[in-house]
Amino acid sequence: MKKVMMGNHALSYGAMLSRAQVISAYPITPQTQVVELLSEMCSDGTLNAQFIKVESEHSAMASCIGASVAGARTFTATSSQGLALMHEMLHWAGGGRHPIVMGNVNRSMAPGWSIWADQNDSLSQRDTGWMQFYCASNQEVVDTVIQAFKVAEALMIPAMVILDAFALSHTYEVVDVPDQGLVDKYLPPFKPAIKLTPADPRAFGGLTGAEHYMELRYKLETDMEKAPALIEETGREFGKIFGRDLGLVDPYRCDDADFIFVTSGTAGFTARVAVDELRKSGVKAGNLRIKVFRPFPFERVREVLGKVKKAAVVDRNCSYGAGGIFYQEVKSAIYGRPGMPPLIGYIAGLGGRDITTDSFKEIAADAMAKDRAEEEIVWIGVKK
Amino acid sequence: MRPKKAKKIVFKSAEEMPVMICSVGHQTHNLTGAWRNIRPEIDRSKCIKCGICWKFCPEPSIEVVDEWPVVDYDYCKGCGICAEECPAKCIVMVEEQR
Ligand code: SF4
Ligand code: SF4
Fold first, then answer.
1. What is the pLDDT of residues A61-70, one digit of tens each?
2. Chain B residues lying within 8 Å of A97, measured CB to CB
3. Cβ distance A166 to A107 under 8 Å?
4. CA pair distance B73, A45, nearest whole angstrom
């Protein structure tokens, strides 16, 4: 069934179709509509789930952890300051291996107070042991939530499904809503090997001495390393059922490209338009949209970069003192490998400033005029 | 109730550890009673056996034995919550002499 919906409601539909059993959330712009619709679904019986109201995002994640450890499929959503307030509990969910799925609407961090698109909120949480999926369309949001539950529960690793504020969260698109019966086949009920029940009381996450802690973290890392293959496998399975493959990366016209953009989120779709226009003017351009940031898709990124002459990594974020975060990760992915192109890092679109096709053309012109990777960080669209 | 003098569980490999760290005995072999500076002492002559101390002890270090509350000093951290909550005011916190 096709439906016109905003990105926020795409998250709600994803959680509904996944038959989330517990939802705990605290409202925050621009995410509020996600849990608003879910609370309506809980009250009118569309969704058979417990909706837990809490006084903060820290408590929202804490109650999700409690519900998950009791064996419930658990969902929440937040954004920016709310995600930051959850930080301690994000480590608890990742390190404790609780496969919660959370929607995060990418919104810039204050101050200055801002509600617009920027990736610094979620990228600040990259080391908490969560998978991170950056979406570029409302269709991808619905589909990814369903897939995220499947991968998260198989690996016992939580997952964030991330979308840009307003550019996606409040933008209406046509979404082919997956059939519930088929979703049920793709995503069977959550049956954890260990769970908390009164019949089998256990203490979770207690004191862990130096004789065990490293092994716990080793297991988390090695299980995370299994995620790329599993994401591709479950993505192909999704494609067979629903007609849409879900991968780690989304290359566009990269096969014969000399120059590519490396992008994420909605900027990745704008880049495609810029690629088409650049091709018309004779530049063999392409775009590699990185969808999954954690686990980082090293292999897929290398495969594409190994075939091009130059790449511009476009970041809607900044790690102050080191530059764009995707830029650093892509650089580390190709470090020491022969036949890799020079990379140039660009920062654009912070705090919701538009990244337009003109921005991409400016980036392409700048990158093509440089004959090697330079240490400088290039800012696009700053009023200097 | 927790077994006394529980043996510490040590896994030989990462593989044999549970994915979620749970039920590995840390709550039993770690005798938190050693942290205590003040100890709760219950005056049975005033105790009304209501069980409130048992319910409130966060450890939990109070057992009910033949209807009487009994503090398990191997684990009691001396937080004083039981004394605060006791409606009969029959729990006194006494300084530990170590
Ligand atoms: S002092 Fe605290 S830990 Fe000890 S028995 Fe009382 S409530 Fe429990
Ligand atoms: S709370 Fe006080 S009165 Fe009640 S059982 Fe405990 S010691 Fe006795």
1. 999 999 999 9
2. 19-20
3. no
4. 50
Closest CA to A153 of A204, A209, A223, A216: A223
Chain A within 8 Å of B28 (Cβ-Cβ)? no
- Beta strand residue intervals within A193-253, DSSP E: 249-252
Q: Is the pLDDT at B6 greater than 80, yes or no?
A: no
Angle value at C-alpha A105, between A170 and A347, nearest 5 degrees: 100
Strands A74-79 and A101-106: parallel
Instruction: With CB atoms and an 8 Å threshold, state whether A97 touches B19.
Output: yes
Which chain A residue is nearest to residue B14, measuring alpha carbons? A215
Atom of ligand 2 nearest to the CA of B82: 1
The answer as to whether B58 is a domain residue is yes
CB B51 near ligand 2, within 6 Å: yes
- For residue A374, the model assigns a pLDDT of 67
Q: Which domains does chain A possess?
A: 2-242 (3.40.50.970), 249-379 (3.40.50.920)
Mutate to test the interface with B, among A204, A218, A223 (most CBs of B within 10 A): A204
Tell me the backbone φ, ψ of residue A239, rounded to 5 degrees. -60, -40
List the domain range (segments joined by +) for residue B82. Answer: 31-95
pTM above 0.90, yes or no: yes
- Total domains, chain B: 1
B32 in contact with A at a CB cutoff of 8 Å? no
Q: Which residues make Cβ contacts (< 8 Å) with residue B89, sequence separation at least 6?
A: B46
B76 located within any domain: yes
Give me the interface pTM, i.e. the ipTM.
0.77
Give the pLDDT confidence of A280-325 residue by residue, as tens digits.
999 999 999 999 999 999 999 999 999 999 999 999 999 999 999 9
**Closest partner CB to A216 (pick from B13, B21, B27):** B21
Report the C-alpha gap between A130 and A64 in whole angstroms.
14
Touching B: A residues 220-239, CB under 8 Å: 223
DSSP per-residue letters across A12-78: HHHHHHTT-SEEEE---TTTHHHHHHHHHHHHHTSS--EEEE-SSHHHHHHHHHHHHHTT--EEEEE
Which of B17, B26, B27 is facing A219, going by the closest CB pair? B17
For A151-207, give the DSSP string: HHHHHT--EEEEEETTTTTT-EEEEEPPPHHHHHHHSPPP--SS--BTTB---BS--
